[in-house]
Amino acid sequence: MEKAIRRRYTLEYKQEAVRLVHSGQRVSAVAKALGIVEQTLANWVKADKLGRKGNCWDNACSETLFGSLKVERLHGEQFKTHREGKDAVVEWLLWYNGSRLHSTLGYLSPAQFERQANARQHALAA
Q1: CB count in 10 Å sphere of residue 82
Q2: Spatial distance between the Cα atoms of 40 and 71, rounded to a whole number of angstroms
Q3: What angle do CA 106, 67, 118 make, to 5 degrees?
């Protein structure tokens, strides 16, 4: 019996169920209509949202940032106080965003890149 139930949950089946939820139907209504447990459908919807490209919960960007922080600023450091450590991190982040050149941004700092992007947006809107 369990194999028959598991077989029913193919990738296409899950995608269709998630699509129904994304189209505006409530999770509870879709789950009831499909005869599945509401929490199971909620988990599928959550996994679908987290798996999308460009999702703000995608951690590749933060992993790169924190990797750089550890290697460039914190490796081998021992701070006397928690405050001293926090100050070092803030100082590094200000430098990272304001001065450090990033190859993926055309060798601009994030601050310079953002200023240029905003200027282009304003020029297009005018």
Answers
A1: 8
A2: 41
A3: 35
Confirm if 75 and 88 have CB atoms less than 8 A apart: no
pTM: 0.51
What is the rounded distance in angstroms from the CA atom of residue 67 to the CA atom of residue 78? 17
Contact criterion met (CB below 8 Å) for 83 and 72: no
6-38 exposure pattern, b = at least 16 Cβ within 10 A, e = fewer: eeeeeeeebeebbebbeeeeebeebbeeeebee
- What does the block give as tokens for 64? 């790169």
pLDDT (tens digit, 9 = 90+) per residue, 83-119?
Answer: 999 999 999 999 999 999 988 889 999 999 999 999 9
Strand partners, 108: 102
Checking phi first, is residue 35 left (phi over 0); if not, alpha (psi -120 to 50) or beta?
left
Closest to 57 (Cα-Cα) out of 44, 47, 72, 65:
47
